[in-house]
Design brief:
The chain has three domains: 68 residues, Integrase, DNA-binding domain (Double Stranded RNA Binding Domain); 83 residues; 208 residues, Intergrase catalytic core (hpI Integrase, Chain A, Orthogonal Bundle). The chain is 50% helix and 9% strand. The protein is built from 17 helices and seven strands. The protein has a four-stranded antiparallel β-sheet with strand order 1-2-3-4, covered by helices on one side. Strands 5-6-7 form a three-stranded antiparallel β-sheet. Strand 2 and strand 3 form a beta hairpin. Helix 5 crosses helix 7 and helix 14 runs antiparallel to helix 15. The radius of gyration is 28 Å and the shape is globular.
């Protein structure tokens, strides 16, 4: 019987010193197939030795990783290989495409890939998003020889794209790529692309009838998140990224940390006065919503067989598998179908709260407080008056919540009267 290899430890890995005469190799007994190679020059490379299609092969896991990270990556890699992927072949294909593009051989898509892999776009933090946008808008030209793609071809693709905002962003992303590719002879020069004409953004505010129709459909994690936005005037990302530790349910206050709040000020203004945390008083209905959210999450965990209680750092609103709420477009479409209220976005909820607060008698400076604006009453007044009007803030949000309850109750009574008569 083969002797079991003991697991590596982080402390032991940290103490490994390179041998000037040979490459050292260490086997991790915790993760089957995981090995660490240390070259005479000290380079540390993790690899996974497993059978793929009946053949023993070595796959690179990563360079310079810690033990814990290497184990996680190795497990993910093992699953990909078990599902039929060939990471080594994918890397070779990517390198071949990038090299071919730099030599002037290949397609328009290869030139785009080269820009983001070995060109000026390689270090961009947003390269994944830029690449996705470009390939979506210009997908009809990706497999054409790059040297044959003309400015007019790309312009027609821009004009024909149904999502005008996405097409406009793609124009901004593709121009540096085209300039880089033209300088290397991968494409012809002289590209002059126009962004598509866009309609002015709709400053959507839900009226009473729309709000009454929409409110009962705001169920599930996305719906509860939307209800919190309506009851507080918070931004979508502030609500969907909210954690339980931000809520003091005994005091009825939600504290939104400074680092998650949107800051539209100039860089100089930010350095001059950093953004501060924001306290949002919770109405009676908002407090009930938080209890509903907690009960829903405990029920979800029970169904999944998860015994762990809700931690302070956990997100308040999560999807069916416990992940962040990221699929808003799909949910909005489903909600539109159920409610019949169309053409609204999450930001329209914040605008509706502010409008309703004003209609209920809130002064403009109180509406600014609800929206979390920095200069309450204008820059001059804000320089002297540092009040955040917490009492007035709480009263207006309670008035808004009561107003929404009244709209929904009136709708139920109206429907009941109709169906009773029938």
């Amino acid at each position: 019987m083969a002797k079991r290899v003991p697991p590596l430890s982080a402390a032991a890995v940290a103490k490994i010193k390179p041998d000037p005469a040979r490459t050292l190799e260490f086997v991790d007994g915790d993760t089957p197939g995981l090995r660490l190679r240390v070259t005479p020059k000290g380079k540390r490379t993790w690899s996974l030795n497993i059978r793929a299609n009946g053949v023993m092969r070595r796959f690179e896991v990563g360079v310079g990783l810690g033990l814990a990270e290497a184990r996680v990556k190795a497990k993910v890699l093992r699953q990909r290989i078990a599902d039929g992927a060939d990471p080594n072949a994918e890397k070779r294909a990517n390198r071949t495409r990038a090299v071919a593009a730099t030599l002037g051989i290949g397609t328009f898509g290869a030139a785009v890939d080269a820009y983001f892999s070995v060109g000026n776009g390689a270090g961009l933090k947003t390269k994944a998003e830029q690449l996705q946008r470009i390939k979506s808008v210009f997908k009809g030209h990706l497999n054409r020889p790059g040297i044959e793609v003309l400015s007019s071809d790309l312009q027609r693709a821009i004009d024909a794209h149904t999502a005008k905002v996405a097409a406009a962003r793609a124009v901004g992303y593709i121009m540096p790529v085209l300039k880089w590719a033209a300088k290397r002879g991968l494409m012809q020069g002289g590209f002059d692309l126009e962004k598509p004409m866009q309609n002015a953004p709709k400053q959507r505010v839900l009226d009473d009838n729309e709000l009454a129709a929409l409110w009962p459909t705001l169920s599930g994690p996305y719906g509860r998140c939307c209800r919190l936005m309506l009851l507080t005037g918070a931004r979508r990302d502030e609500a969907r990224n909210a954690t339980w530790e931000q809520f003091d349910l005994q005091k009825g206050v939600w504290t939104i940390p400074a680092e998650v709040r949107k800051d539209t000020r100039t860089q100089a203004k930010r350095r001059q006065r950093p953004k501060s945390a924001m306290q949002v008083p919770l109405s009676r209905q908002a407090m009930e919503l938080m209890e509903e959210a907690r009960a829903a999450e405990l029920s979800r965990r029970q169904l999944e067989g998860v015994s762990r209680d809700i931690a302070q750092s956990d997100l308040v609103f999560v999807g069916q598998k416990g992940g962040r709420l990221d699929n808003w477009d799909r949910w909005l479409k489903a909600c539109t179908t159920k409610s019949g209220v169309s053409g609204w976005s999450a930001h329209a909820l914040r605008r509706t709260t502010a409008t309703m607060a004003g209609d209920l008698g809130a002064a403009p400076h109180i509406v600014s407080v609800i929206l979390g604006h920095t200069n309450i009453g204008g820059q001059l007044v804000a320089g002297y008056n540092k009040s955040r009007y917490l009492a007035e803030h709480a009263k207006v949000l309670q008035d808004v919540a009561d107003r929404i309850d009244g709209l929904w109750a009136a709708t139920k009574e109206f429907d009941g009267a109709i169906y009773g008569a029938i």
